[in-house]
Amino acid sequence: MPQDVKINENNSTQRSEQPLLEVRDLEVSFGDGPVLHGVNFTLKRGERVAIVGQSGSGKSTTVGAILGLLPGNGRVSAGSMTLDGQDLGAASEQQLRQIRGHRIGLVPQDPMSNLNPVMKVGAQIADALAANGHHGRDNIRQRAVALMTEAGIPDAARRYNQFPHEFSGGMRQRVLIAISLAGEPDLLIADEPTSALDVTVQRQILDHLQTLVDARGTSLLFITHDLGLAADRTDRIIVMADGRIVEVGTPEEILFRPQQDYTRQLVAAAPSLLATVSGTETVALEAVEPVAGTDTILEVRGLVKEFSLRSQGGTFRAVDNVSFSVARGTTTAVVGESGSGKTTVARIILGLEQATSGEALIDGKSITSSTGQVRRALRRKVQPVFQDPYGSLDPTYSIERLIDEPLRVFKVGDAASRRARVALLLDQVALPRNVAQRRPNELSGGQRQRVAIARALALEPEMLICDEAVSALDVLVQDQILDLLAELQDGLGLSYLFITHDLAVVRQIAHQVVVMKSGMVVEDGSVEKVFMAPEADYTKELLGAIPGAAFAR
Fold it and tell me: From CA 254, how far away is CA 267, in angstroms rounded?
């Protein structure tokens, strides 16, 4: 793997003027060991450049060095960074505070953790404006409302006084964009700005961000692990691995003519690119038609779920007459944007929500109307794997205790047999047995999700409900988890209900697809039918929002 790759400054897509940002031989160390090694790249005015790579590749550390915001004992141990000729490495903290926000804007990843939950969104934008030299209460409010409008927030004057929890995920991300633009920066750094958003909302946010960047002539440094997004949205792509730049090129060069094995792995692992750059069409799994009787493991009939609106009165119908079935040993994906009702359906099947009407049957027995021991037995047959491996595992428990907890809850076996079962489960999810006494924070995100899968398998269920089980993972780790799920399905005969908003992942792993919008099923069919001949306009919209589609051959 090359130790140092320099960008070709003669590339015809680049502008002729001097770089706005220049990073040369950058080395960042934590303690005694460097984690960035000889990083070199430039960014010209008005140019859009992506840095891609898996977690730990050095993307965010590079951004932290540029902003002077390295965590803990991190420090720049060698090299230089200049912004429009100004040496960022030599700048004082006071100078960096003037640069951050005013010269360099940041759109961070998670709007819920980057917005103050007890502070109105307008006040948070106003703070950013005041920090960037704006004066006068009325003037600041007027400018904040204008920024909110510019960032695509409708009825901004009214929403100025709302709190973050009153906004959707996409609207919260727009608030962060408004804050980042408050200082009218020359450079905008977008650090995984849409990784937690649905593909349709993601496209809306990035379309709007691109419009703003183009209108202002702002340079964009886009940090992502998604090569499809990078290809769609930037002029050049920088690929990082293990703290080094391993390859640089245009989207066409990176996707179609990658030079490094690591880049090829990223391209191969990106679900959104599977059918566009491999030279062949993705082969859809053979559709397995659910049949009556024991061959159908799950049947959902006319499911309705209404929630009371205490503040407004009345009810909200989150699930509206939903029906579908899952054939034993197959994967059915339920797709749709946030608020479509897919997670509520999953919670009803798991027995975590009570249906208003309709029923869900497992092996022909209704979990929605059953009680007592019958309900308890049915719940053993269906187990969940949740989205966030950081939040779904108790950080104070050992891995062994996390995995054997379902066995203890259902009073299965004694201590010795449970210990043996944990060892077998670790083998099944390809984790070393010596992790049993470790804590979740000692494992990577992919390892934590393997622990979550092992925990779900502890009771030998017949079906797993995977609720966005890979959406929080890097593409390489995501690919590993999807391969693991496929192996477990083949080896154990498992059935999956796979809840997701990502149709690219669906095409890779599912047999049947149920498309939901506003609580209703708008399309239901085999993977081949839904992808090759979609009937609903909403399905076509979801398919059109898959990143990387512009590079289809």
Answer: 8
Looking at the DSSP assignment, which residues form a beta bridge with residue 333? 498, 513
DSSP labels, 510-546: -SEEEEEETTEEEEEEEHHHHHHS--SHHHHHHHHTS
Separation of alpha carbons 190 and 145, rounded Å: 22
> In sequence order, what are the beta bridge partners of 33?
30
- Eight-state DSSP code of residue 233: H
**Which long-range contacts does 361-368 make (Cβ < 8 Å, 24+ apart)?**
361/298, 361/299, 361/300, 361/301, 362/297, 362/298, 362/462, 362/463, 363/294, 363/297, 363/462, 364/293, 364/294, 364/299, 368/303
What count of other Cβ atoms lies within 10 Å of the Cβ of residue 41? 22
Predicted confidence (pLDDT) per residue in 498-528, tens digit: 998 778 788 888 999 999 998 999 999 999 8
Q: Which residues contact 549 (CB under 8 A, 6 or more apart)?
A: 232, 272, 276, 543
Average pLDDT over residues 29-53: 92
**pTM above 0.70?**
yes
291 vs 203: CA distance, rounded Å: 38
d(CA 349, CA 298): 9
SS3 194: coil
Amino acid letter, residue 27: E
Pairing status of strand 244-249 against strand 236-241: antiparallel
The CA distance from 185 to 106, in Å, is 9
> What number of CA atoms fall less than 13 Å from residue 21's CA on the CB side?
28
Count the Cβ atoms, other than its own, within 10 Å of residue 491. 9
Q: What is the pLDDT of residues 280-336, one digit of tens each?
A: 344 444 444 444 444 899 999 999 999 887 656 678 899 999 999 999 999 999 998
**β-bridge partners, 492:** none
Residue 543 is encoded by which pair of tokens?
């398919």
How many whole angstroms from its chain centre is CA 140?
Answer: 34
Say how far apart CA 299 and CA 153 lie, in whole Å.
40
Contacts of 547 (CB under 8 A, 6+ apart): 199, 202, 226, 228, 229, 231, 232, 272, 504
DSSP string, 291-351: -SGGGEEEEEEEEEEEEE-TTT-SEEEEEEEEEEEEETT-EEEEE--TTSSHHHHHHHHTT
Residues 504, 510, 515, 519: is their CA dihedral positive or negative? negative
Q: How far apart are CA 218 and CA 204, in angstroms?
A: 19
Q: What is the largest CA-CA distance in the chain?
A: 74
Angle between helices 445-457 and 415-428 (to 10 degrees): 130
Residue partners of 339: CB distance under 8 A and separation at least 6: 168, 518
Among 484, 449, 495, 512, CA closest to 284: 512
Mean pLDDT of the 453-459 span = 95
Mark out the alpha helices in 436-501 (DSSP H runs).
445-457, 475-492
